[in-house]
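Hey,
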Amino acid sequence: MRVAVTGGTGQLGRQVRRAFAEQGWEVAAPSLAPPEHDVADPAIVDTIAALQPDVVVHTAALTDVDGCARDPEAAFRVNALGTRNVARGARAARAALVYISTNEVFSGEATTPYREEDPVAPINPYGQSKAAGEAFARAILPEHYIVRTAWLFGPGGSNFVTKILARAQAGPLQVVCDEFGSPSYAPDVARAIVQLVATGAFGTYHFVNAGVASRYEWAAAVLALAGLATPLTPLPRERWLRPSRVPRYTPLANQAGAALGIHFRPWREALAEYLRIEAT
């Protein structure tokens, strides 16, 4: 079996390639990463078809939420039209598609974690572009898995954890205390994707580590597990000015995956493993 991974040099893409290889899959080269491979370029359709994969995992995206707010056209071109191109390439190859989506397709007005069947209502250009990508995937290719994840962190990437550790070296920290989500460990998500593909159960899934955290709680856990005594102060999100409007509450409930036997450990446990790896 052969898998092709768009954005294969990114934080999640690297872990996806590794997870499939560990299960004996052939990982198609190249990894379909920029600048050589731009998913917004229609040429990617023929590139994917020529690789003849059995599965295409589409991790490539513009994930800078504030950057997407500053340039909504670029967000739509990459995240929506790029997904259309990748879905067309998968269809041409007669391959299944795994599209990586986001918690930010939801409005953040809920009071309990979002389920897979809850209606999307994105409030910023990033979420809107990713929701459009979901729509293209569904319309073009029946053989699709839409995997929503959130607040990704993992080895070799720039993420919330690495930013907190870097800022902690400079002195006291203020972190938003009233924005809530699901911290998700990239290696855990990647392994779950491999499990999902093995089931052949197409549909929409929420793949996040278990538990809910505020940004402040997440930062506090990072500092504690790293053995840092940097002072940390909670900050209301209205005092953290940024270009993008961000949903307040977007934890995700892994119901569909759990029904297939795909479960996730608590995010704190995954964070502890990540920090041990980073420390070595």
